[in-house]
Amino acid sequence: MQKQSHGLAADHGRVELPGPAEDIACMRAALDEARAAVEHEDVPIGAVIVRGGEVIARARNRREEARDPTGHAEILALREAGERVGSWRLTDCAMYVTLEPCVMCAGAIVLARVPLVVFGAPDPKAGAVISVANVFDERKLNHHPRWRTGVLREECERVLRDFFASHRPAADE
Ligand SMILES: [Zn+2]
Questions:
Q1: Positive or negative: CA dihedral 126, 130, 135, 140
Q2: Rounded distance from Cα 161 to ligand 1 centre (Å)
Q3: 5: CA distance to ligand 1 center in Å?
Q4: Residue of 39, 65, 74, 100 with catalytic role
Q5: Could you report the per-residue pLDDT of 60-118, keeping only the tens digit for each?
Q6: Measured in angstroms, how far is the CA atom of residue 105 from the centroid of ligand 1?
Q7: Which has the closest alpha carbon to 35: 20, 46, 23, 19?
Q8: Which residues is 49 bridged to in the sheet?
Q9: Neighbours of 125 (CB within 10 A)
Q10: Would the pTM of this model clear 0.85, i.e. be above it?
């Protein structure tokens, strides 16, 4: 394993992960991102990445806006965090996301070595943490993010429900 030797990650080992007391404030930041997605007709899902008590990356779902099938909030937030930290290894970062990550995003979170993910609402149709797959608990993978859920769940679900009620049928997702 190559040692990280540049960027913010150089002081690894000194950064504490957020605890439940910080969950609501961090999820509110993710919800702000989710709401911004609606302006571009994108499904309102937002994510932020927190390191040492600071939000270092924030992103919204941009699939429609960017015509990018991989333009999920989590992927874009991971990319931004990598730039900010100066490494693809986000070993002292936590992700807050309004909806349970899909298989692609859960896989990217594992690859980025993110140690903690907090999601607001479960996604019964595509969620890859507890719903349709259990990527974070897959023993055969080499990294297992811890996760918490239910933080501001009703608000996270409401922005999605409001979007689908006024835009298009949820079946399209
Ligand atoms: Zn995703």
A1: negative
A2: 18
A3: 30
A4: 74
A5: 999 999 999 999 999 999 999 999 999 999 999 999 999 999 999 999 999 999 999 99
A6: 4
A7: 46
A8: 57, 95
A9: 12
A10: yes
